[in-house]
Design brief:
Elements lengths: L2 H7 L1 E3 L9 E4 L2 E3 L7 E3 L6 E8 L5 E8 L7 E2 L9 E9 L5 E8 L6 H13 L2 H16 L4 H18 L1 H22 L2 H9 L6 H14 L4 H18 L4 H18 L4 H17 L5 H8 L4 H16 L1 E2 L2 H12 L29 H29 L5 H6 L3 H22 L5 H13 L2 H20 L2 H9 L8 H16 L2 H19 L4 H21 L4 H10 L3 H28 L5 H19 L1 E2 L20
Parallel strand pairs: 3-9
Antiparallel strand pairs: 1-2, 2-4, 4-7, 5-6, 5-8, 8-9, 10-11
Helix pairs in contact: 2-3, 3-4, 3-18, 4-18, 5-16, 5-17, 6-8, 6-14, 7-8, 7-9, 7-12, 8-9, 8-23, 9-12, 9-22, 9-23, 9-24, 10-11, 10-21, 11-22, 12-24, 12-25, 14-16, 16-17, 18-23, 19-20, 20-21, 20-22, 20-24, 21-22, 22-24, 24-25
């Protein structure tokens, strides 16, 4: 974690009686394997300072050395100090001739940082209550941070972690976008647009195989943002999938299995700015003379999991084969007409009477298509407008790459969902399908249907925050694996660490933020002239982050996929993990290891991986009937919202 990130997240303790403006910061929680971090800000002192750190309990001097600073107005970090004991540790810090300051931190063994995410994941699976599981995970993390103050930890969950995630501008934009899009889809469903577009699309999607292939293709077309992909494709195809007796679990898998993989490696997407930004920061700090964007482009063939995941989805749909719990779900839907399992709890509820199409009035497909097209076009235009303004302000060349990389995707998504809702209401009123009162009621009910999923999303963000900022879960994992790495094993192990970190924290972008500052210097240090190792390590961070994002029950995109398809969240996770495990294992074996050892290049690795997946699907997959005779009839569910 960088100096700036640590500075924001630490508990700052100073003694105001000093004559100089010296400040010392330390994290609330320190992990024994990582040591104790101290950061010092002394703007009025000389550029060369003697810093002495003493353990107050034992009197032992932990640090005594002179520090030369590059700039007097910037905070500088001391070498990480080895703790003397577990538990509360009070330190005295003397900077130059200033009065000594006292700081304290709580030292825990490293494995403690794994407990909150593992506990949340385990409880979610056992209790099938995601909200309770997430809250307990955040609370346990807060308990460590607060020094086992039960009441303080409970209050900190609400006033610090949850509040902090909600007031974050990007998160608040996502929440508002979700509500606005939910309102839009509520109006679309009530005005009959959903039923109209379902009737129109099903002229091509006349079989379960065609319906799944249509969903997969739409997932490729909406490449510019994974959130927009999930929330546009899922609601559009859900009523069609219900009519064709495609299980909600299979629909959620196809939606989830195309969204992040496509967005993560598209040359123009909301991910590009983040990914290239991480790479650029590390190249600049290490003085590596490589272009960050071109490095990302070169790493695309090494993104074995995202590419093979897309291939796996296409193969399963094309062959009409399934295996594992997904086959059971598909057989249930096809033979019994039940798109949801008995006792399932959909992440969204679009079966409210107020969200069903009004009977006796025309069901026009344009009432759904035009609002969706408005969202899509507005988001694309918004990306261009905000990106162009940002590039102009920075003075960089007005290239399409720079424009999209600098765009404010959240602002563009807000514009799109708002204008889409306006168009949906306008069409309902103009076509005299709904009155103004009915339109507003449908809009509000559409937003209300999102509440449960939004609660899960906020708690998932909160758990990611406590793991990343206070417990340093990702850093601990890398620290455990780092010292004895062989260069050829680095991409393989980085994928594992990234996958587990993303799975445990539920955040792909957060995982990238944790691992890039650790892995790129490591790759450069152990293999400074090996481009294959560097590209493999970078791509493994991205690919592993996407895998964990796919499989974790606390991941935002996994939650959004359940939400968008109105699937039981844990059923989605349970059926998707085996399908994600196959391309991940094949990608590590044929891709990460094969290319790092120099046996062949990435394109050969992809061909070998694709061949292996074909063999696995043919070996363990079994055909699911396209049409079932004598099955129970099921009524199609009216269309609506997501995110």
């Amino acid at each position: 974690m960088g100096i700036r990130a640590t500075w924001v997240l630490v508990a700052l303790l100073t003694l105001p009686a000093t004559g100089s403006a010296v400040e010392v910061a330390t994290p609330r929680v320190s992990l024994a394997p990582l040591g104790i971090r101290l950061e010092v800000l002394a703007p009025d002192a000389a550029d060369t300072l003697r810093v002495v750190v003493r353990d107050l309990q034992s009197g032992t001097i932990l640090h005594d050395a002179r520090v030369t600073r590059a700039a007097s107005d910037e905070a500088f970090a001391l070498p990480q100090l080895a703790p003397l004991r577990y538990g509360r540790q009070r330190l005295q810090v003397r900077v130059g001739g200033a009065e000594p300051l006292q700081v304290e931190t709580r030292v825990f063994p490293g494995w403690i940082s794994l407990l909150p995410p593992l506990l949340a994941i385990g409880l979610a699976i056992v209790l099938r209550q995601v909200v309770v599981a997430l809250f307990v995970g955040v609370w346990v993390g807060a308990l460590f941070v607060s020094g086992f103050d039960f009441l303080g930890a409970s209050l900190r969950v609400v006033d610090h972690y949850v509040l902090g995630r909600v007031v974050d501008r990007s998160n608040a934009s996502l929440l508002l976008f979700t509500l606005l899009l939910g309102g839009m889809v509520g109006v679309i469903g009530r005005s009959g647009g959903a039923r109209g577009i379902a009737n129109a699309v099903t002229r091509f999607a006349t079989t379960p195989r065609r319906g799944q292939l249509t969903t997969w293709t739409l997932g490729l077309l909406v490449f510019f943002d994974d959130y927009a992909n999930t929330l546009l494709v899922g609601p559009t195809m859900r009523p069609i999938a219900d009519k064709l007796r495609i299980s909600r679990e299979k629909l959620a898998f196809i939606v989830d299995g195309t969204a992040a993989p496509v967005a993560s490696m598209a040359l123009i997407s909301s991910w590009i700015g983040v990914e290239v930004g991480y790479i650029h920061d590390q190249f600049a700090s290490l003085e590596i003379d490589r272009d960050a964007y071109w490095t990302f482009v070169q790493s695309i063939p090494y993104l074995f999991y995202p590419i093979l995941m897309l291939f796996t989805g296409f193969l399963l749909v094309s062959l009409g084969r399934d295996f594992g719990p997904m086959r059971g779900a598909e057989m249930r839907a096809r033979t019994r007409g039940k798109v949801l399992a008995d006792g399932a709890t959909p992440a969204t509820d679009f079966e409210e009477p107020t969200l069903r199409a009004v009977e006796g009035r025309p069901h026009r497909w344009i009432n759904a298509a035009l609002p969706l097209l408005t969202v899509l076009v507005t988001v694309l235009v918004g990306l261009y407008v905000t990106g162009r303004a940002a590039v102009a302000a920075s003075g960089e060349p007005q290239s399409l790459r720079n424009i999209v990389g600098s765009a404010d995707s959240f602002q563009a998504l807000l514009w799109g969902s708002f204008l889409g809702g306006v168009v949906a209401i306008g069409l309902a009123l103009g076509g005299r399908v709904l009155s103004l009162a009915e339109s507003m009621q449908a809009w509000i009910m559409g937003m209300r249907s999102m509440l449960y999923a939004l609660i899960i999303l906020v708690l998932a963000w909160s758990l990611g925050e406590v793991c990343k900022s206070d417990l340093h879960t990702g850093e601990y994992l890398v620290g455990v694996l780092g010292p004895t790495l062989r260069p050829a094993l680095l991409p393989f192990l980085v994928f594992l660490v990234a996958a587990f970190t993303s799975f445990a924290t539920g955040s792909s972008w957060g995982t990238m933020g944790i691992l890039f500052p650790l892995v790129v210097p490591l790759a450069h240090g152990i293999a400074p002239d090996n481009s294959t190792i560097l590209l493999g390590a970078i791509s493994s961070i991205l690919a592993g982050s996407v895998w964990g994002d796919h499989c974790s029950p606390i991941s935002d995109t996994t939650i959004l996929s359940s939400l968008a398809t109105s699937c039981d969240h844990l059923d989605h996770v349970r059926t998707q993990i085996p399908y994600a495990a196959v391309p991940a294992a094949v990608g590590m074996l044929f891709g990460s290891l094969g290319t790092a050892y120099g046996w062949y290049g990435p394109w050969v690795a992809l061909l070998l991986g694709a061949g292996a997946i074909v063999g696995i699907v043919l070996l363990v997959g079994r055909r699911v009937p396209e049409v079932a005779t004598g099955a129970e009839e099921t009524q199609p569910v009216e269309w609506s919202v997501s995110r």
